[in-house]
Amino acid sequence: MVRILVIDDEPDVVGLIGLAFQFNRPDYVIAEAYNGVEALNRLAAELYDLIILDVSMPEIDGFEVTRRLRETSDMPVILLTAKGMEQDKVRGLELGADDYVTKPFSHKELIARVDAVLRRAARPLETPAAADILRYREMEIDLTQHQVSMRGEVVKLTPTEYRLLYQLINNRGRVMPQETLLAKVWGMDYREGSHYLKVYVRRLREKLEVDPARPEYLITVRGVGYTFPADTAA
Known about the structure:
Layout: E1 2-7, H1 11-24, E2 28-33, H2 36-45, E3 50-54, H3 62-70, E4 77-82, H4 86-95, E5 99-103, H5 107-122, E6 133-136, E7 139-142, E8 147-150, E9 153-155, H6 159-170, E10 176-177, H7 178-185, H8 194-208, E11 219-221, E12 225-227
């Protein structure tokens, strides 16, 4: 059973989403909330497998709900954004949302996005066959424990951030094209979503780099993709 919390201040939107899942995914249980305060109260009291969250709500908007949720949880979040508001999409991803759907949307598209995010969330993090700890300058990556430390301090990464870092480290010294990284981390349907990659690389740099504007670990290869330096000693 999959439990999804749908949050939107328009009851008609919430109701139609609920009906779409009732007819297309009858094993999904849909809970409803109509503002940010109600959503945060529900999230504090109950666990869900995924959240569908409207950005534009009074009092506490979807961005703030996402920010507060990310302080304590990696629960998957799909944002509902307004048509043409590219900055909303980028801001949502920067705050930790896993995906977005632009209003007006088809229920087929929404369900496909939900299925894709749930597949990623259920996919186990990559683990090498043997214990493997990589050290590079001030960074230490325990590939068995899926743990990253900088200067002896553990850095909290979301599963998506870790998967992206793992792909770069696992291919250190090689240039990874954007399309390859998107397919491996997000899935084949996201190969054209370069903004996902840009946002998550920026988030990793903010967490790992001394100077995110002059990265030492996550290096951009202009017009191609990204690379992690090869001179990493185990």
